[in-house]
Amino acid sequence: MAQAQFQQETSPRGEFVRQPNRFTGRVTAKSTSAPGEGPDEQGRWPLESGRYRLIWSRACPWAHRAVIVRKLLGLEDAISLGTVDPIRDERGWRFSLDPGGRDPVLGIEFLAEAYLLTDPEYQGRVTVPVLVDTLTRQVVTNDYPQLTLDLSTEWTPLATKDPNLLPSELRPEMDRLMQDIYEDVNNGVYRCGFAVGQEAYDEAYSRLFSRLDQLEQRLSHQRYLFGDHVTEADVRLFTTLVRFDAVYHNHFKCNRNKLSEMPSLWRYARDLYSLPGFGDTVDFDQIKRHYYGTHAQINPGGIVPQGPDLSAWTS
């Protein structure tokens, strides 16, 4: 069996098994902690404007969706934003894009510093997005699925816009669809790309394109996943689709066809790309440099392809 990109997250049959999220604190107005204090006995941090900093990589789809939701809700003034370099070394995500190579608010060089300050025994992979408390420089959460849900629910007192990304009457169906999209598409492309066993890859590949075919059919008669209104489900699907032809099709061997060869999904992705908060938060250069430049087991030479032609996204 070939050597895995992430050995600790690879099963004996060569299947990529994503690590659980280590930090699951939540920021909410329901916290019994006073302003400036830490979490209450239930792990709830107090809701305060300007106190927390969202750390993301422009390359990462999980982090990208948090930034989209933050912008759609008008939370830019309430939650500051820090950006790590798309290229990681053995020490992980670094703040080398900032002057002096340090985050200007947290004062750290590597995101791992915040992880280890919060849990000195932490040995897992350091991931984004991360919400960090600027007072203590400790990680509040790296639980990316819950983070965006909380932005739309717990952060509403500080939001300046109300796009209603989580319509209550749709939540049961939305939750089911978002879980299917996560398992087969969002995480499915990684299960293809990081598989080191043929059977594991074949299974992930089959589930990925079966789900994409279902979504293609669903979108053949409606604008978005739930009609004419953008929801959280669209945000979660978009961040995978916008990376599909640029990296997943080739780099992760998701090559039955390109996104641009699936008419309904291609129309849908370009529609979302045109909306504020979506296309203006996409950085194809950093996306490509991250994937092709940091997965040495998949792309040993680190060569970043010139293509594909990205002009169709805005034509």
From TrEMBL:
Superkingdom of origin organism: Bacteria
Region (Disordered) location: 1-44
Domain GST C-terminal: 167-291
Biased amino acid composition, Polar residues: 1-11
PROSITE patterns cross-referenced by the UniProt entry: GST_CTER (PS50405)
Record protein name field: Glutathione S-transferase C-terminal domain-containing protein
Lineage per the UniProt record: Bacteria, Bacillati, Actinomycetota, Actinomycetes, Micromonosporales
